[in-house]
Amino acid sequence: MGLLALGTALDWPEAKTRAHLVRAWGIKQLLEIWNKAKVKERDAMLWGDEVEYLVVTYSKDDPKVLLSLRQADILAALAEDKTLAKEITPPASPGGTKPQNKYPSPVFHPEFGRFMLEATPGKPWGIDFKELLHVEPDMKLRRAIAKDHMLPNEYPITLTTFPRIGSPGVFTDPHYPVSGPKLRSQFVPDEIANPHIRFPTLAANIRSRRGRKVQVNVPVFRDENTPWPWKDPTVNYDLHQWPEDDDVRNGAAPDNFIHMDAMAFGMGSCCLQITFQAKNITEGRKMYDQLSPLGPILLALTAATPIYKGFLADTDVRWNQISKAVDDRTAEELGEKPLQNDRWRIPKSRYASNSTYISEDPRLRDEYLDPNLVIDPEIKQQLLDGGMDDRLATHFAHLFIRDPIVIFNEDLEVLDLSKTDHFENIQSTNWQHMRFKPPPADNNIGWRVEFRPMEIQITDFENAAFSVFMVLITRVILSFDLNFYIPITKVDENMETAHKRDAVLQEKFWFRRNLFSSRPSRGSGSGTNTPRSGGGGGGSSRANSRPPSPVGPVEDEYKLMTVNEIINGEEEGEFPGLIPLVESYLDSVNVDVATRCQLARYLDLIRKRANGELWTAARWIREFVRGHEGYKKDSVVSEEINKDLVGKVIEIGEREARGEGFKGLGGGLRSCWGGFERGVRMNEGWKDGLTLFRQLYTY
Ligand code: ADP
Ligand code: MG
Ligand code: MG
Ligand code: MG
Ligand code: MG
Ligand code: MG
Q1: Enclosing H/E stretch for 274
Q2: What spacing in Å lies between the alpha carbon of 264 and ligand 2's midpoint?
Q3: pLDDT confidence of residue 88
Q4: What is the tens place of the pLDDT at every residue in 244-279?
Q5: Whose CA is nearest to atom 6 of ligand 1?
Q6: Where do the domains of the chain lie?
Q7: Which residue(s) pair with 220 in the sheet?
Q8: CA–CA separation, 465 vs 457, rounded Å?
Q9: DSSP 673
């Protein structure tokens, strides 16, 4: 994330008085960009990923594993390293494909947690299929470079959350006592957050606006010996340092929930984000809409968060916890009190699944939109007056119901229309699962769409696989003109469903039945969408042969499906499955065999996650804890278990860096070997993989 310039950050009561000005100027800046960039055409199909790491200290002889708070030193060491500044050639991909291009060195960024790092590729990836093969080596390189700029006992790991963050005792290096004036947390010190003034101000102003601390409650996993009802034993009811210490005495920590009380418990989580550049605004708006219903599915597939604050949780993903950790809504906005001072009731946190569609696609039926969407009508009118269409104006008028949280006094002197700072202030603190990113003020890049729900995966193989899968899905959506629309409120429901334990195998999600369905103009046969290029085997031909469907009730357009059905297709029914669609897309374009075989490894991971052959990280972590000899079946993840878990994760990383382990994944076998091309010599390891590696992390 880009950091705003330093300045005087206003405390909440003062910031509140300037909120209206920031919004007004933000809208002017938005209209300025929009008017300049709405005609932009033919921007390249570029994309880029973001990988976030926790930095831990670990050594075999030390009984404790800790969060290292040296983010600033590590970033400084990376910035000073002149050898990184020149172009680097990524190592060959596994399987021997040599990258032909040189890439600039990866870029490292700060994040909210002072124990976090973020890394992106040195420049966005291009459209060439071969570039997809450079992602995994580049991710490995990023991890290696990060490690090289750490102390010998520090490691970048890609667990979503540190299992014992906020547990009693010492969990950071160095240790700081609780509690500080910004977070006022009884579990984590202020020093846990990036000290750049933006971050503590964000946390303090969210708390202050809300009128109490954030309340991050996660249902505890009930194991054989878990006392029931369960009372979070780490909550201290006897503190009297801050007014907010009353929160727990007022019921903030209900039975059977792990109770957390600070932004760090959410924004200290790591995720995997993908940003796509569209060729123009129309395509960008379409991508935003079409990728939206996929969010919860990818959240369930990437589930990796079964532990909080030293306890097994009854959920598998991080999303809602981040949502609660930055929920700045007041009691009035939450509907707990009648509206007096605030303008509206707001059903969701500012970190939540997105609440509206934005495309002018004729297939978007009014019924898909939420009739209760909260918008600021004045903002919407200003946008309409500025020439923006209704649907996009609605989207921004919804984002702009929020107050800016961090305001720097210096920025309020004159409105600078050559900047986008006020617009970004609101935009970048609306953390929805999709983000529509307008070009920056100088317009040198295009309209972008960010896909944000995925959990970070333990290995770079997996992170590359999910990134590449999303790129391929996006290509499929655009070339087959797929239609994933379901009512947006069903996407919300799916997001909740994705939290359930093992949702990927146990739950069903609302999903559109016919992805090739026609435009809702009755009788217009030209509305039927067929693959533009090539044959398309598998599911698409089945779906293709359907006549254009007349418009029926919206409820008939979607149904509940398992993730396996969505990803791999229905055995009996008609739904083709996303992987078969990707395969048929790949059949229809020119991909060389070597590239296709590598892509097959990634698709195989997704396929097997969905059908249960491979576990999610959440499942693996939960089983690791429950199978640990020190585990007392009481939901407690002790120091000892934590150390062994993190030690295992470090070991997995080291083995991956040495190129061990993932030879095993080989749907490559099915498609490359038995399939479309003869004479590809397969690595022996791939063969073994099908039988040996039932679980991705088992070595
Ligand atoms: P943020 O944290 O605001 O989402 P970052 O700059 O950290 O943004 O990451 C954005 C991602 O988008 C990076 O992977 C970057 O390589 C990629 N990216 C940068 N420029 C473009 C572009 N023009 N089109 C697509 N992706 C881009
Ligand atoms: Mg980030
Ligand atoms: Mg970023
Ligand atoms: Mg950012
Ligand atoms: Mg970010
Ligand atoms: Mg991002």
Answers
A1: strand 272-277
A2: 13
A3: 78
A4: 999 999 999 999 999 999 999 999 999 999 999 999
A5: 1
A6: 172-262, 460-692
A7: 313
A8: 10
A9: I
Average of per-residue pLDDT across 121-136 = 91
Ligand 1 proximity of 120 Cβ (cutoff 6 Å): yes
Alpha helix (H) residue ranges in 270-389: 281-291, 295-301, 319-325, 331-334, 377-385
Give percent helix, percent strand, percent coil of the chain, each to the nearest 5.
40, 10, 50
For residue 161, the tally of other CB atoms under 10 A from its CB is 26
Ligand 1 within 6 A of CB of 109:
yes
Task: Tell me which of 42, 131, 275, 437 to substitute to probe ligand 1's pocket, judged by most ligand atoms within 8 Å of the beta carbon.
Answer: 275
Question: Tens digit of pLDDT for each residue in 415-462?
Answer: 999 999 999 999 999 999 999 999 998 878 999 999 999 999 999 999
Question: Which distant-in-sequence residues (6+ apart) come within 8 Å of 318 by Cβ?
Answer: 160, 161, 266, 269, 271, 304, 305, 455
* One-letter amino acid for residue 367 of the chain: E
Q: Whose CA is nearest to atom 12 of ligand 1?
A: 48
pLDDT at residue 335 is higher than 90: yes
How far is 219 from 202, CA to CA, in rounded Å?
26
Distance spanning both ends of the chain, measured CA to CA: 36
Give me the interface pTM, i.e. the ipTM.
0.95
- Residue range 352-398, pLDDT digits in tens: 999 999 999 999 999 999 999 999 999 999 999 999 999 999 999 99
Q: What is the mean pLDDT of the chain?
A: 89
Would you call 545 exposed, middle or buried from its count of C-beta atoms within 10 A (0-12, 13-18, 19+)? exposed
